[in-house]
Write a structure and sequence with these properties.
- By secondary structure, the chain is mostly helical.
- The protein is built from 14 helices and 4 strands.
- The strands form 2 sheets. Strands 1-2 form a two-stranded antiparallel sheet. The chain has a two-stranded antiparallel sheet with strand order 3-4.
- α6 (about 160-170) crosses α9 (about 210-225) and α12 (about 330-340) crosses α13.
- The chain starts with a helix and ends in a 10-residue tail after the last helix.
């Protein structure tokens, strides 16, 4: 009977018919397929944002004209150990357009820096998160990286683009966090938005949201805003030669009207040679301010050393100077022609002995300078989708 039971168990597989045979077939556990961090982040991010993290936009290596060479690299304020990269700039783009970074979800960086007008503000004084106004006009952001000292804002109060990036977010008037819990409250709010932990982990390898990472990402995005495709750029590219006198900046440009070329001549020629000498402070091809520039004599007795943004896209602006006091480019030209005031902060290039130097331009030359500056508008930067809002409607 026992033999019959054993035979039955053996036939049913309930017990090994040969006790001496202890080997059994074991199916190996499959090795998990690694998950692409971009794919994992996309599953969350794409619920809110029109982004594909597996195919990032090119921020790090834009195609630039030949004249964006070593002379331009020499004034680039990008940290040597932190060059622009696509992932960080993508995060910066989200931060730049997100009204959730203001205390009451009403205001983003893009509120005061609109892509369609050269990342400028269409208001004289910017409006903050609760309707209050700042005391200065927002600066254009194109070519922000090409100011060698790196100091930002009209009064140079920020030491770097990174430092500049966080100040409006914390400001009590602009985005409101300084009076509402500061950076700790902001990062807590951001951590509660599903897309930020996913994005920070994708960019930095972990989901921690810190002030340093916010500053860094915004700076990557803003430094990528290079203006190199205005009418002036396209025309200058046709005559540029490294070995040409003054890098061919003094040559007449193809496709320019007589007035535009006269304005170019005035801009590029020094005052001692019959020009207006504008390029001594606003240097082509970036038209960013030189490192040693001081103030421009807006007010008598001025003691603050003001800076200016690049002149690229200046024709898109509706307000000019740190307080937006001028509403036309012609008014700006008239200031340099007739109204420069003496003061301790006045730039030496606007000084003649103990008196302010004024250009005393003719009516025709004033209009010519305006016509030339209008050729600096860069429609490509103003329409490039990688600098537009990434948020889904």
């Amino acid at each position: 009977m026992a033999a019959a039971m054993l035979a039955t168990l053996s036939a049913c597989g309930g017990e090994d018919a040969n006790p001496a045979n202890t080997d059994t077939a074991v199916t190996p556990t499959p090795t998990p397929t690694p998950v692409d961090p971009a794919v994992a982040a996309n599953q969350i991010v794409q619920q809110f944002l029109n982004l594909d993290l597996t195919t990032l936009d090119n921020y790090a290596a834009p195609a630039l004209p030949a004249y964006f060479d070593g002379t331009v690299d020499a004034i680039d304020n990008t940290p040597g150990n932190d060059p622009v990269n696509d992932a960080a700039a993508t995060l910066g783009r989200v931060l730049f357009y997100d009204a959730a970074l203001s205390f009451n979800d009403t205001t983003s960086c893009s509120t005061c820096h609109k892509q369609s007008i050269g990342f400028d503000d269409d208001e004289q004084l910017s409006t903050g998160f609760e309707g209050g106004q700042t005391d200065q006009h927002a600066m254009r952001l194109g070519n922000i990286r090409y100011y060698e000292p790196g100091e930002m804002f009209w009064n140079r109060r920020a030491a770097s683009v990174e430092d500049q990036a966080i100040q409006p977010i914390l400001d009590a008037t602009e985005m409101g966090w300084s009076d509402n819990g500061g950076i700790a409250a902001l990062t807590t709010k951001m951590a509660g938005l599903d897309y930020y932990p996913a994005l920070f982990e994708f960019v930095y390898g972990d989901p921690a949201i810190t002030q340093e990472r916010i500053e860094q990402s915004l700076a990557h995005f803003q430094r990528a805003m290079i203006s190199s495709d205005s009418r002036w750029d396209r025309a200058y590219a046709q005559v540029f030669a490294i070995g040409a006198p003054n890098r061919a900046l003094n040559q007449a440009l193809p496709g320019f009207s007589a007035s535009e070329n006269r304005g170019r001549e005035l801009f590029m020629t020094g005052q001692n040679n019959g020009g207006a000498g504008c390029l001594s402070c606003h240097v082509p091809p970036t038209f960013a301010l030189t490192a040693n520039s001081r103030s421009n004599g807006l007010d008598a007795g001025e003691t603050i050393v003001f800076k200016s943004p690049s002149l690229k896209n200046i024709g898109r602006s509706a307000f000019f100077m740190h307080d937006g006091r001028f509403t036309t480019l012609r008014s700006v030209v008239d200031h340099y022609s007739d109204s420069v005031q003496a003061g301790p902060a006045l730039d030496n290039r606007l000084t003649q002995g103990n008196n302010p130097r004024r250009l005393n331009l003719t009516e025709t030359d004033r209009e010519a300078l305006v016509d030339f500056m209008l050729t600096l508008s860069d429609e490509t930067l103003e329409a490039d989708p990688k600098f537009a809002s990434p948020f889904l409607p």
